[in-house]
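re: ur question from yesterday

yeah so i grabbed the chain u mentioned. its 192 aa long if i counted rite. heres the sequnce exactly as i have it in my notes:
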Amino acid sequence: MKSLCVYCASSDRLEPKYSGMAEMVGAEIARQGWALVYGGGKTGLMGAVARGTKNGGGKVIGVIPEFMKARELEFTEADELISVITMRERKMIMETRSDAFLALPGGWGTLEEMLEILTLAHLEVLHKPIVIFNQGGYYDDLLRMFDRVVEERFMRETIRGKYAVARTIGEIFPLIDGWKHQPGDAKWYQTR
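ran it thru and got these structure tokens back, copy pasting raw so excuse formatting
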């Protein structure tokens, strides 16, 4: 069974449109026969995507730091709940347990996780599909920033081949299934 790592918000203060969509994403993960790998929480979009996957009959794998468990924030219905000490350990396990990555709307944590995975792809360390779910244009400004990074020559045009953008749930799995690794220009890391 393939596993999809989902990065998303843990906040419960969001508009219902975000949690509703996250739950539908979870249902689609289950429908596609994939397992969910995520941050292990029960709140916000994390909880919504986990409930959607679980209610759809899918497998849920949570990776949660001990400090979150101490606050009783874990999704106890997960099929597998992996406890870790640090956030770095959490990210490493999520990365290694996943066949593809999906970023739903989120805050700093989501952005940090997504940008780390994009960086690993740019450095040719990671060759797995990465999809940004741009629900209602949430990531429009970030995508414009990516364009500026290229325009100002901080990175090359080839970074655009390291991720795909979905605007609907129906676009997510076709982008993952049709993804082909695009070599980048990060030649400096290669030995001569």
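noticed a couple things. The chain has seven helices and seven strands. also The mean pLDDT is 94.
anyway ttyl
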